[in-house]
């Protein structure tokens, strides 16, 4: 029995900030962002568009009635949780109309937890082959205005339907994970924005990749020539490029290096326009690769490196199945082009607006553009979500 991803959906905000405008406002050379980070634009969310609305929008784009009746687990991976107790997946389960006898949970470990969600989903399908598991990575990467991390913000959600006999890709049993107790990026409960040791985090990302890749090679007796492509967690694309170069063995044939670099460029196409989406960044890269590469074919093996600060990382691989291209879109770039361009002033107003509750725990919001779902209001400290007709 093969188990893997049957469908993939994506949603991001309806507002976009060009990096050239941010560079000008911050008195920076635009090439610092376009080349130094390999970012061209950032998705910016208003207060009515959060991890719930993004997650539900991403999943709605791929689910049909049969899916809603057979899904028996919903896993939401995020580090932008809206509640310290109630799982965001419970809201998503209701908004999507999934049958009631399903387990709904939320997972956290910085940007890594979506990979843990897929691992859990795989084990569940092994036990119950007829079931389907919806794994969603949804996050809003938010830092302070004019902070060192401001240029690596973003927002979005990736929804993945895991099943037996998948129509996009199958998982291989080759996962290698590593844990390190480090303080490279963290956000205590009392802070709305994270604390970041940027240079240290970059070094840890690259060293975790190097050491986990070495262990993966030892266990699997393989090298990069066995892969058609390699996808990476994408806090910003330039870091992932450094990662690829770090594991690229000099003894590899030039044809292998060219293949990997060309497919890497395809894997960052969407992230260049969206920015960092934390738990979903790796899988946005995977989706971008699948929808933009002109060379992938059924049977191709793709490597994936997942990293979450703190830190947990994992390397594993998947294989494309016959007909995978029929399950993808070839017009997603149009969605990104149709976002509303905003100024830096508008970005600062939108991105940092927070709910102002009255003494009874109520709040209303202005009418902002969102995807298929939106946060309508807060009443008695309860968040009320609605879908658009």
TrEMBL record:
Q: Which UniProt keywords apply?
A: Acyltransferase, Transferase
Q: Which GO terms describe its molecular function?
A: hydroxymethylglutaryl-CoA synthase activity
Extract the coiled-coil ranges from the record. Answer: none
Q: What SUPFAM superfamilies does this protein's entry cite?
A: Thiolase-like
EC number assigned by the record: 2.3.3.10
CDD domains, sorted: init_cond_enzymes
Q: Return the Pfam families for the record.
A: HMG_CoA_synt_C, HMG_CoA_synt_N
Show where the Hydroxymethylglutaryl-coenzyme A synthase N-terminal domain sits. 11-164
Q: Superkingdom, according to UniProt?
A: Bacteria
The family classification in the record reads: Belongs to the thiolase-like superfamily. HMG-CoA synthase family.
Under what name is this protein listed?
Answer: Hydroxymethylglutaryl-CoA synthase
Q: Which organism is it from?
A: Streptococcus loxodontisalivarius
